Amino acid sequence: MSAPSAATIPAGAPAARRPDAFAVRFARNRGAVAGALLLLLVALVAASADWLYPVNPLRIVGAPEIWPFESWRYPLGTDSMGRDIAALIAHGARATLLIGLVAAATATLIGVTVGAAAAWAGGWIDEGLMRLTELFQIIPNVVFVLTVVSVLGPRIENITLAVGVVSWPPIARLTRAEFLSFKEREFVQACRAVGMNPWRIAAAEVLPNALPPVIVMSSLVVAGAILYESVVSFLGLGDPNIASWGRLVGEGRSLIRSSWYICAVPGVAIMLTVLSLNLVGDGLNDALNPKLQKR
Q1: Are 115 and 168 in contact (CB under 8 A)?
Q2: Where does the protein end up (predicted)?
Q3: What is the mean pLDDT of residues 8-17?
Q4: How many CB atoms lie within 10 A of CB 41?
Q5: Fewer CB under 10 Å: which end of the chain, C or N?
């Protein structure tokens, strides 16, 4: 007798839904569609940064504090040092998305591993891993990130690692809850009855069904990672060799009364990117959550 496949999963399980049905449900959420289009625009700007602005964005190219639309060469103006803000925004989009995606991937990998192992093994392993998760949850995230960056150095790799490490506990708890809900389902019992390895059941049968809510959570982690990076750069601990939206906001705060646009332009970029990610996450929740299919 062969091992049960995805076809044996109950109809309410997330893995049993069709991709076209997911697209239809996602498209019904107008906010999610708007967020996806806005996020696509940010990604296109990031991908074309080298083509639009081939010169190093940190290079001084004009007079300082040229206001937006005052010169056609600098549509978003220049900062207090004479750097092109449009170039900083374009190149900063690449760093922002890269940090957000890699940090979210790191947090998801750690969180899914810890949560799945805790729920599936149970006993003292579950207890120990959950206490470890709670330990990370009570540590102030911003303080932890700033401490790690201060110790390891203000490099983009260290910032990404620190943000990923502080972002995994919610994913771990969600994964654990999902695994516990599927642990005693009929298709899992059928897999055990035919002699499948328990960890193979967890990886091949339970994990695909537990992932949809984790994907929604991961999209929100990307938004959180962008905010963490902006805070680190705003406080002057960001990588000095790359363009950063948070760093531009931090450098412009001393001129907030005379040249407020230096803070406003990257601030709006951060706001719109985080908003688009939250809208996409809301749309993913509507499309992947079976309880919301008839909403």
Answers
A1: no
A2: Cell membrane
A3: 41
A4: 14
A5: N
Q: Which domain holds residue 106?
A: 85-288
DSSP 196-257: --HHHHIIIIIHHHHHHHHHHHHHHHHHHHHHHHHHHHHTT-S-TTS--HHHHHHHHGGGTT
HSE-CB at 18 with a 13 A cutoff on CA atoms is 3
pLDDT one-digit tens code per residue, 93-141: 988 899 899 999 999 999 999 998 888 887 898 899 999 999 888 888 8
Report how many domains make up the chain.
Answer: 1
Residue 23 lies in a domain: no
In a domain, 135, yes or no: yes
Looking at residue 238, which CATH number applies to its domain? 1.10.3720.10
264, 268, 269, 275 alpha-carbon torsion, rounded to 10°? 160
Q: In 139-203, which ranges are continuous DSSP H helix?
A: 141-152, 156-167, 169-182, 186-193, 198-201
**Amino acid sitting at position 290:** P
